[in-house]
Amino acid sequence: MALLSVKDVCVGYGGFLLLDHIDLNIERHERVCLLGRNGSGKTTLMKLINGELTPDSGTVSRGQGIASARLDQEIPAGITGPVIDIVTSGLGGKGRLLADYHHTGALLADRLGNDPRLLARLDRLGQQLDAENGWEIHRQVDLVIARMQLPAEAEFSALSTGLKRRTLLAQALVSGPDILMLDEPTNHLDIDAIAWLENFLAAYEGTIVIVTHDRLLVQKLASRIIEIDRGRLLDWPCDYGTFLKRKEESLATEESQNRLFDKKLSIEEAWLRQGIKARRTRNQGRVNTLMKMRARRRQRQERPGAVRMTLQQGKRSGNLVMAAENVHHQYDEKPMISDFSTVILRQDRVGIIGPNGCGKTTLLRLLLGEFPPHQGRVRLGTNLEVVYFDQLREQLDTEKTVFDNVANGNDTVTLEGRTQHVIGYLQKFLFTPERARSKVKSLSGGERCRLLLARLFTLAANVLVLDEPTNDLDIETLELLEELLLDFKGTLLLVSHDRAFLNNVVTSTLVFSGQGKIEEYVGGYDDWLRQRKIPQVPAVEKASPKPPSRPRPATVKMSFKEERELAALPACLEQLEAEKKQLYQSLADPVFYRGTASDVTTANARLRELEEELRTAYMRWEYLEERQALAAAAKK
User: Fold this and answer.
1) Most Cβ neighbours (<10 Å): which of 124, 162, 181, 455?
2) Using an 8 Å Cβ cutoff, are 354 and 190 in contact?
């Protein structure tokens, strides 16, 4: 029996059917990827599945007791509080109880157990957890927080965008939903976090419904692809590679059938125009057939036009574009770039890879000469015409219209020496005349990205600098942008977390490897993975396993010792959790404090040790599970 069933559902906006009489069944353990252009209805469908939206007609039904959770594409505004509170809020009343127990225990540990009120409160909360069978849920929450590497007591509003998304993902996971729905989960995540998420979802046992533009994620996860095309659902029970081949064949067949139909219709229209012969009784059947053909032609929905991007080539730059010599730069006494040297020549395509906040944008601005480094020097070549795409879209004036952001007070733009009206130019980027008169603040993320590309591509360039250009773009537009960049005759600097985009576009990579060090590699993302040095994992004591250093594992073979260690870790974790629970119970008992002061001090010290041991044990478990998943995938 299907977990969820959608039957004859319609959803429309302003008379336009976004979803047109669709049917869908989702089974247990499926990994469904929703594909479609921006605005095609993917998020709307997920809201229907999650019960957040009621269809205009049709039914959405789910099996008895089936639970679902959805991670939204955007981070909701106004969320405040410690991370542990946000995560456990996905559990309702039990979640609030767990958060209260966690905070009380943390306060008691800070005060060395010398607060009778906190002791009494912790004891009461522990009894409630016992009564509600909350200890297993407590373990699950600790496991998810450790796997996500989240700071439990940190304030949510102060986190980076990537950590906020990981916190909200943890909130969705702790409830153990039967159907986990993820809307663009890789947005604003760095490459390490994306790789972690990919391996985590590959090992996830529930049903997954995911919307993403990350082609490598789709390729690894999807067992079934649902495409939303002109209000219809097209079901492709296959992997992504097979989908691409079948989709191309399907479009070719559709185009051929439409041509044959249109040819036949034109013949029948010519026959009808002959006059009285067509109105004879014996020909009335042919007239009726023609009327039906006309109705069918009116109902046909043509495929929406593709983005038509052109990039103006600037004049030829000098052979040397930019060179950095022993550059050192720091922020608040923390080195962001340390002893970095490179030479970038004309027509180089350089990708820049690194975790969020490591200094990728700072590196771009140093290389462009926007400010000098603290040490070393940067030299720029001659005849440079730079076009810069910033990841925050700050070049767009949100209070102005789409038209005004491109026109700069004019009605026309000049491309390759030819003048074109701004409205016509914007239509190439899928902005209707009505949408072109809208203010930028009303646009979606994908629309803002297309608008910034439209604005920048009116400028001639021989150096193109793109800082996270792929966020919010659908796969079709991404592929068109790739083709455009491959035809570009100038120099490209690209910051991106899109692994497929890096593979397809760049010829070398600069990778932040930690502590301000930047290493240079030939090729794209996959080439970097093959060439990089994997740090040795330190030996691990049974009672206190140590986490590996980043980066994530790239090897796919587990040793016998690692397999035994992974098998033993659950028992080790249970032992540590049991000792931690016992310590909390002891510290919650007023009788315990009638002993010596050294006993109390020792107990609190051991509690802090246990917290650290558990943290490192969960990280080690995560690491070995990733290794196991990679090894299993390599055998297939």
Assistant:
1) 181
2) yes
Task: Give me the helices (H) in 132-186, please.
Answer: 135-147, 161-173
Average pLDDT taken over every residue of the chain: 81
Question: Are both 440 and 513 inside the same structural domain?
Answer: yes
Residues 73 and 90 in one domain: no
Is the pLDDT score of 153 beyond 90? no
Token duo for residue 437: 């008169």
Same-domain pairing of 52 and 120? no
Same domain (yes/no): 344, 392: yes
Percent of the chain clearing pLDDT 70 (strictly above): 86
Distance CA 81, CA 76 (A): 14
Domain-embedded: residue 16: yes
pLDDT at 127 (0 to 100)? 80
Least confident of 196-200, 225-229, 343-347: 196-200
Check whether residue 278 and residue 402 sit in a common domain.
no
Taking only the tens place, the pLDDT of each residue in 463-487 is: 999 988 887 778 888 888 888 888 8
Q: Is 414 in the same domain as 351?
A: yes
Q: Which runs of E-coded beta strand occur in 474-558?
A: 491-495, 508-514, 517-522
- Residue 253 falls within a domain, yes or no? no
The b-or-e profile of 429-458 (16+ CB within 10 A means b, else e) is: bbbeeebbeeebeebebbbbbbbbbbbbbb
CA distance 220 to 577: 34
Total-model pTM: 0.69
* CATH code of 44's domain: 3.40.50.300
> Distances from the Cα of 104 to the Cαs of 72, 232, 581, 594, 599, in angstroms?
31, 52, 14, 21, 21
Beta bridge partners of 331: 334
pLDDT at 17 exceeding the cut of 60: yes
pLDDT digit string, tens, across residues 280-308 = 555 777 777 878 888 777 766 655 555 67
- The structural domain count of the chain equals 5
How far apart are alpha carbons 578 and 621 in whole angstroms?
Answer: 18
597, two tokens: 């002061």
Two tokens at 371? 């400010």
To which residue do tokens 């906190």 refer?
A: 118
Q: How confident is the model at residue 206 (pLDDT cuts 50, 70, 90)?
A: confident
475-487 and 445-456 are packed helices; what angle lies between their axes, rounded to 10 degrees?
A: 20
Could you list the residue range(s) of the whole structural domain that residue 275 is in?
265-300
Q: What is the pLDDT of residues 58-106, one digit of tens each?
A: 999 988 888 888 988 778 888 888 888 888 887 777 778 888 887 787 7
Does residue 50 lie in a domain region?
yes
* Number of residues written out for the chain: 636
Single out the residue of 340, 364, 310, 611 nearest to residue 481, CA to CA: 310
Residues 183 and 289 occupy one common structural domain: no
**549 assigned to some structural domain:** no
